[in-house]
Amino acid sequence: MGIRILVVEDDVHICDMVAKFLRKEGYEAEICSNGEVALGRIYEQRYDLIVLDIMLPGLSGQDILKELRNVYDTPVLMITALSDDENQLRAFEREADDYVTKPFSMQILMKRAEALLRRSGALKAEIKAGRLLLFPETYQAHYGGADISLTPKEFEILKLLAMNRQRIITHETLLIRIWGYDFDGNEGIIHASMKKLRDKLPKDLIRTVKGVGYVLEVSDEE
Predict the structure, then answer these.
(1) Which residues make up the CATH 3.40.50.2300 domain(s) of the chain?
(2) Which burial class, exposed, middle or buried, applies to 175 when counting CB atoms under 10 A from its CB (0-12, 13-18, 19+)?
(3) How do beta strands 76-81 and 49-53 pair?
(4) Tens digit of pLDDT per residue, the chain (222 long)?
(5) Is the pTM above the cut of 0.85?
(6) Per CATH, is 4-120 categorized as 1.10.20.10?
């Protein structure tokens, strides 16, 4: 089972957007829009991280956090309004681990979430996919024990593929995740970067799904 994250947010658009982004990154994301329902799920099963809005129907995010801390030390990333200073302070008094303010970028939320997951030990310092070993903190890569020299962009592409091994990563996902939402180029940059990356890796490690994207062909049993 992978890393499990519960997203608790009553704005359906934000909730779906966060969950979709997390899933593209290789995490198991569940969503919930009601405070009482969310608390019930938290008691029924363990999560590695909870992304929690302060303002919710039913129980508030602060109420959920207070109840949660009576039982679990699960990392909690709070979502707050930009001018919600009082609620932010109250959330930290009840042991929230970090927060993002609306509106927020998916990249910032992802960085904060991964920092909490690393701190808790849920996200290891390295990513292993078959004989491939990646160290995100230092941008080092190894295959079968041999070093692979990668540019930062090449590393991020390989990391995304490794975290979603055996799943197709589309051209659109690569453009958004690696080059950003505001990138005005085209898919040509993906093909050029992928060619350079493949030249540094064993043949057929990355398979092209014509017209769709790419997939890393490895097994954790290798």
Answers:
(1) 4-120
(2) middle
(3) parallel
(4) 478 999 999 999 999 999 988 887 778 899 999 999 999 999 888 899 999 998 888 888 888 998 888 888 899 999 887 666 666 666 566 678 888 888 888 889 998 998 999 888 887 778 888 899 998 878 899 998 899 999 999 999 999 999 888 889 999 888 888 887 566 667 889 999 999 999 999 988 999 999 999 999 986 555
(5) no
(6) no
* Residues pairing with 31 in the sheet: 7
Residue span(s) of the chain under CATH 1.10.10.10 come to: 127-216
DSSP string, 87-149: HHHHHHHTT--EEEEES--HHHHHHHHHHHHHHHTSS-SSEEETTEEEETTTTEEEETTEEE-
Terminal alpha carbon distance of the chain: 18
The CATH code for residues 127-216 is: 1.10.10.10
